[in-house]
Amino acid sequence: MQSLGLFVGIGECNANCKHCAGRVHRKDAPKKDGDIDKELILKTLKETYGKGARYLSLSSSGEPTLSPLSVTKILELVSSLTEENKKFSNINLYSNGIIIGQDEEFCEKYLLKWKQLGLTSIYLTVHSINEDKNAEIYGINKYPQLSTIVNRIHKYGLLIRANIILSKGNIATCEQFIYIVKQLQKLNFNSVSSWRIRDQNDNVDLENSPLESELDKMEKFIEENKFNNFDIKIMRGQNQVLYQTKQKLTLFPSGILSNTWCNWKEGSKYGLYWKNL
User: Fold this and answer.
1) Domain count, the chain
2) H helical segments located in the chain
């Protein structure tokens, strides 16, 4: 195994994305921030670590920063494993960045605490350099300036990766890709990962994805333009191979452990899953 993903929190969200793949899981999310299945999460952490997992990602059926008590409790569990010589080398938190950009007191209260508990990076979904375009796609009235979000994350010693969803409605050509990548570098993002838009069955949405020829051009651009200390990736088939070979697993709010990101029906209840690994 390489990595484990955990769904965190109550499933509340401060955005309204049309393409949200997490919405289907909200019915299984806890109703109160701070309520976590400690026994299940701790057992999952220990067993996946024992099978080689060293990367941990915290996601949500909503926006995880709206469940700060849950995030804190899970990071405390992860931190406690260091007493057993179990230490994840990278711990990442997926976020839309809205509360980080809007609420400085929140950042002061939680980002430093999470850093101290072992969080290494914030994975920020970025649709555009333009705040109005971000607001439009996120389905909200106003989106914070990216520079504010980046500065606040760096202030507390965390790294920030931009996650770009490649789709015909937004970023579909190599020219569009090159433009946003260069702008993100200027804004002091540490890295960029991108992938084609997917449906709720965890399949590539071919109707709304960029042409293969444009993806080839993007990869060629990355290969020909090595940026110092600025990693750029396009996740194509190789990322799905990691899931298919069970090198990446996700624990969903329902208690299902699956080798997919969102198609949880192909997993099984925790106690049964390990027999198939």
Assistant:
1) 1
2) 38-50, 68-80, 98-102, 104-106, 112-116, 131-138, 146-155, 174-186, 212-224, 237-244, 270-273
Structure confidence by residue, pLDDT tens digits, 79-130: 999 999 999 999 999 999 999 999 999 999 999 999 999 999 999 999 999 9
| Closest to 131 in 3D by CA, of 159, 93, 96, 95 | 96
Can you give the CATH number for the domain in which 69 is found? 3.20.20.70
Dihedral angle over CA of 25, 19, 171, 201, nearest 10: 60
pLDDT in tens, 131-146: 999 999 999 999 999 9
The CA distance from 74 to 42, in Å, is 9
**How many whole angstroms separate alpha carbon 211 and alpha carbon 196?**
10
Q: What tokens were used for 198? A: 């997917």
Q: For residue 148, what are the domain limits?
A: 3-276
- Say what the pLDDT of residue 205 is: 77
pLDDT for the residue numbered 197: 80
